[in-house]
Amino acid sequence: MKKPEILAPASSLEVLKVAVNFGADAVYIGGDLYGLRAKAKNFSAEDMKEGIRYAHEKGKKVYITANITAHNSDLSGVERYFQELKLICPDALIISDPGVFMIAKRVCPEIEIHISTQSNNVNYLTFEFWKNQGASRVVTARECNLSEIKEIRRRLSEEMEIETFVHGAMCISYSGRCLLSNYFTGRDANLGECTHPCRWKYYIVEEKRPGEYLPVDENERGTYLFNSKDLCMIEYIPELMDAGIDSFKIEGRMKTALYAAAVVRVYRQAVDAYMESPEKYQKNIAFYREEVSKCTHRQFTTGFFFGQPAQEAQIYDSNTYVKEYVFLGIIEEVTEQGALFEQKNKFSEGDNIEIMKPSGKNISVTVKGLTTMGGEAVKSCPHPKEKLWLKADAECEAGDILRVRG
Prior knowledge:
The protein is α/β, with parallel strands linked by helices. It contains 11 helices and 19 strands. The chain has helices at about 15-20, 45-55, 75-90, 100-105, 125-135, 145-155, 180-185, 235-240, 255-275, 280-285, 285-290, and strands at about 5-10, 25-30, 60-65, 90-95, 110-115, 135-140, 160-170, 205, 215, 230, 245-250, 300, 325-335, 340, 350-355, 360-370, 375-380, 385-390, 400-405. The strands form 3 sheets. An 8-stranded parallel β-barrel has the order 1-2-3-4-5-6-7-11, surrounded by 5 helices. The chain has a 6-stranded antiparallel beta barrel with strand order 13-14-18-16-15-19. Helix 1 (about 15-20) packs parallel to helix 2 (about 45-55), helix 3 (about 75-90) packs across helix 4 (about 100-105) and helix 9 (about 255-275) runs antiparallel to helix 11 (about 285-290).
């Protein structure tokens, strides 16, 4: 049985390093242009170089998104962008637009091309078409069920890879091709500027009662008509592997390092356990479910994998996340002074916090002391991005993540 790749999202160099350290085989990132997360932090050219160097040193891969639906005015810029990417040698480009695909083939033929889910890839002939064009991998549309993916795998040659989203936010439009954002705000989701109107509250207006807003559901809070639950397939690793999926993709290029660490780590543990022994995986399912629920999410669904989602796949009374844990920081180094970290959220001396380790362990510790870079002892750390030394009653290591139950 082929071991699937764990493919993680990263919004920044910090998140890329965390994803790699917590078990990702590959990371997908976006530059400042031509990806579908224009509002994410994204990577400068220098950060891309450093991220690729860091990943390659650890035997991991980096893919760069360039999956906008390009207009005429975008094409010359895309060509210049690919000429720059050619010099920093990512492992693949993620592309949806045939015109952009043609430019990539001409400008940087040595870089693999993966076909984005935005291309609506739902049948084996589509996969075969892209293979014949020179693509090495195609991302399934999220509308594919497991039986369809299994059929695609059966009809494809082995060298053509299948990538599938297995975890993260779901878009209500077909393969993410949404027009709501453009209609309401003028920001085109297909150019990377989605304002997520699917998460807004909606009412209806009757033609002869202008200005009278009626809730769609009998609920004083209105209804979130388009607000999907988040995808989570941690309990179905055997079914995903049986379908012949080569890469398990995690959504979340707008998410934090804590999210990347938590989700990547649990899928890494689950896949490794199943490869070792199906019984070991089954024994630990409750633990996997608990761990993946600790990161920010919107309740979970299995999406289209087992057929058309029913109304239970939507959330009708809220657009807020479930947030069980708060991100405190990442340990940068450990010396006799303590563990150096950059503060993300406030905590105080005497608090009980948790250390997340890449190995899979979670260690509860008590904060024994906090010291500024200038050597001043402080009772708490209320200033975001301040660097401090932490003393705790357990050993910390560089790369550990600090979190606390919210």
